[in-house]
Every structure is written in structure tokens, then in C-alpha cells.
Amino acid sequence: MPPPPATGCRSAPVLKERGQHEVFCGLTGIVWLHRKMQDAFFLVVGSRTCAHLLQSAAGVMIFAEPRFGTAILEEQDLAGLADAQEELDREVARLLARRPDIRQLFLVGSCPSEVIKLDLAKAAQRLSARHAPHVRVLNYSGSGIETTFTQGEDACLAAMVPQLPEKSARELLLVGALPDVVEDQALRLLSDLGIGPVRCLPARRAEDMPLVGPDTVFALTQPFLGDTHAALERRGARHIPAPFPFGEEGTTEWLAALAREFDVPAGRFEQVTAAPRARARRAVAAAAETLAGRSVFFFPDSQLEIPLARFLTRECGMEAIEIGTPYLHKALMGPDLDLIAPGPNLSEGQDVDRQLDRLRAARPDLTVCGLGLANPLEAEGLATKWAIELVFTPVHLYEQVGDLAQLFARPLRRRDLLKLEAAE
């Protein structure tokens, strides 16, 4: 791994793009959130299109009992011919009668509900009072009108923060929905380092939701949680800045920031992290044989682009031509930007046509982009990686480093094989 650059990209100029953008809507976040929170239910107040999106994205069969659903806004609701609030009350009552296991109910706004100005905040307050203490009802927006798809999780967690009980004891809060197996790895590493107590937001069950106060310190596990970060700081909690835990270097730096906060001795840190760091480096080396010397271009999609670019350039030997991200929150991304050597073009926001022009001029070896762009670019002879796959796949911390690197190596290997077959 190269040494840290003398100057990173934190102060590099950023190209602000404000044009046509192509992203999934924030409802997509329900697909991983409903699996994480085991006694929660996500009720989307939207159209049949919203229902079809969730059904398709989650792959839920019609006879399954998922922890999400859609309260369909019919034509008469959209035309103002029916009282949507009364209909929503009836729908929630039927849902809770059928599913007594629900402890948290999220009313999720959509494009249709926001267009007709349906006040879900008022509905959440009314329903929470009606069904307390058995069920807590919250609301957030999953609309995709002006947002990218990972903001659905951010909006959900930010809505939870004001409801968290107050506590003054010093605790570490890990913020961001991780797959259970990855969260368990993080908790085990922190326990071995002697860091605790540690709580998670979101918790797997409502009864385990964290407490928060002025003595709470928190670390983000996902780079797209800007609103949640602000909500926690308003509650008095303090953020621990660090690179995000993608790759061996990012995970080590993330853990090191927490270790400094909790005065973990250097010897203990080395003892706990030496073996998993070595495993991670070996796992990356296998994929780096394919990735080293190749170029990569990031379209703005998931907000994971900056830490992933840091991983690919520093640990896998790739060259980043452009790093596009929907939002560049320097308070969160600064530590990662500090580790990226100057050179890549940084862009914030999206103007698809202009970015496609720059892509075609650069002809990178690999393009990380959304599904809507991937197939046309493949037809032009460019290898692509679906950005959304990097959100749905466990890729954090040491034990997932090899899987993360292979996600980028596989499309390049496939492209190389196709070229060999064409030559024969």
C-alpha cells in the first residue's frame, strides 16, 4: 500500500453538476432496512408503481409476509375526492390487527403522496398516540423526486434520532444499517479492543434502540448519512471523523480513530488487528492482479464513490479518472479525500449528458454507474459495474475486503475473456 499522499483531494476543485440525473428512488432503502429491523414495518403511502418497485427490488413472492407494504393511493385520493387521512387510519388499524408483532411502524412518503401534500407527519403523531405504547409510528420521505436512493436510509435514521431516549453515560454509537454478520464482526473487534459499551442505530429490535446524549460519541459506517449526522449532533452527540471501513486501510483507520477516542494502547490495537489485516491484504492481492494499472470512472449514484475510489486507488493500484458523487459532504468524506492523491476529477451532482461526454473521451477500463446506464455502455464496449450492487453486498470491514475487490475485478476479467474469444 502506498504511503499517504503529501496532499490529498480535500481542497481540490469540485465540478458542480446540476442537470438531468438518473438514480433509483429512496424507497429502495426499505429493501435492506426491513431485513435489519426485525419488529418494524414500512408502510409506503404511494401508488401501484411504488408497490411494483418494492416487489421487484426485494424479490418477495406474493405469498410471503415481508415487513413492508404499500397503502395504495387510488385515483380518488389523488383527485382529492376521498379523505386520505381516514383511509390511512383504517389501513394502519387493519395492519396492526393482523401483525401484532410490529413495534415500529414507518409511514414512508412517496412521490404521489408528496405531490398531493399528504401530511404524514401529522398522521404519524396521531397514530402513535392512538397505538402507544405497543407501537411507535414515525414518518420519513422515500421520494425519488430530488434524491438518490441511499438517502432513504438517511431519512429513516434521521427520523428516529429525535425519539431516542436521553442518556448522559459515555457510549459509542455505530450508525448505519449493516448486515447482521458484518455488524457482529464490528462489535467483536470493538469488544476485543476494550471499547464499550457499544450500541447500534438502527438496532435489530425496538427494545434495543440506543440512548443518546451529550456524552455519546458516534461513528458512521455508511457515507450517505448526512442528515442523521446532523440530527445526532443536534442531540449533543459528537462525531468521530474517520475514513469509512471499506478495504484494509479504511477499516484500520476507522478502528484506529475509535481506539484513540477510547485510549486503547497501541500494543493491544496491533494484537487485535494484525491477523485480520493480514487476511485482508492477501484477499486484495488476488484481485489486484486484475485491477492494478486499470482506470475507473465513477458516475454519481450511491454516495459510496469517494471511499470506494480511495480503496481502489490505494489498495488495488487503479487510477481514478473521475469520482462523481451525488453529494459531497466534506465533514464526512474529508478523511477519505485526504488519502486520495490529487489527479482525479471530482464532481458533485449529475448532468448525465456532460458526464457521458467525459466518459467517452476518457474510455476508462471500468465504469461504476447505475443500471440505466450500464447496458448502453456495455454495448459501446465499456466494462461496467452496477453501483447498486455495492450497497446490497456485504463489503465493510476486514473479512469482506476480498469480496469487495472481486466485485470490481469480475467485470474486467469478463471483458478480457470476451476479447480473447473474439480474437480466436
TrEMBL record:
Recorded GO MF terms: 4 iron, 4 sulfur cluster binding; ATP binding; metal ion binding; oxidoreductase activity, acting on iron-sulfur proteins as donors; oxidoreductase activity, acting on the CH-CH group of donors, iron-sulfur protein as acceptor
Pathway assigned in UniProt: Porphyrin-containing compound metabolism; bacteriochlorophyll biosynthesis (light-independent)
Nitrogenase/oxidoreductase component domain: residues covered: 25-409
EC number(s) stated in the UniProt entry for this protein: 1.3.7.7
UniProt cofactor note: Binds 1 [4Fe-4S] cluster per heterodimer. The cluster is bound at the heterodimer interface by residues from both subunits.
One record GO biological process: photosynthesis, dark reaction
Short name of one Pfam family: Oxidored_nitro
Enzyme class label: oxidoreductase
Keywords, comma-separated and alphabetical: 4Fe-4S, ATP-binding, Bacteriochlorophyll biosynthesis, Chlorophyll biosynthesis, Iron, Iron-sulfur, Metal-binding, Nucleotide-binding, Oxidoreductase, Photosynthesis
Binding site for [4Fe-4S] cluster: C25, C50, C111
Catalytic activity from the UniProt record: chlorophyllide a + oxidized 2[4Fe-4S]-[ferredoxin] + 2 ADP + 2 phosphate = protochlorophyllide a + reduced 2[4Fe-4S]-[ferredoxin] + 2 ATP + 2 H2O
Named cofactor requirement(s): [4Fe-4S] cluster
Subunit and interaction comment: Protochlorophyllide reductase is composed of three subunits; BchL, BchN and BchB. Forms a heterotetramer of two BchB and two BchN subunits.
Function as written in the Swiss-Prot or TrEMBL entry: Component of the dark-operative protochlorophyllide reductase (DPOR) that uses Mg-ATP and reduced ferredoxin to reduce ring D of protochlorophyllide (Pchlide) to form chlorophyllide a (Chlide). This reaction is light-independent. The NB-protein (BchN-BchB) is the catalytic component of the complex.
Listed PANTHER family: LIGHT-INDEPENDENT PROTOCHLOROPHYLLIDE REDUCTASE SUBUNIT N (PTHR39429:SF3)
Family: Belongs to the BchN/ChlN family.
Protein's name in the database: Light-independent protochlorophyllide reductase subunit N
Lineage: Bacteria, Pseudomonadati, Pseudomonadota, Alphaproteobacteria, Rhodobacterales
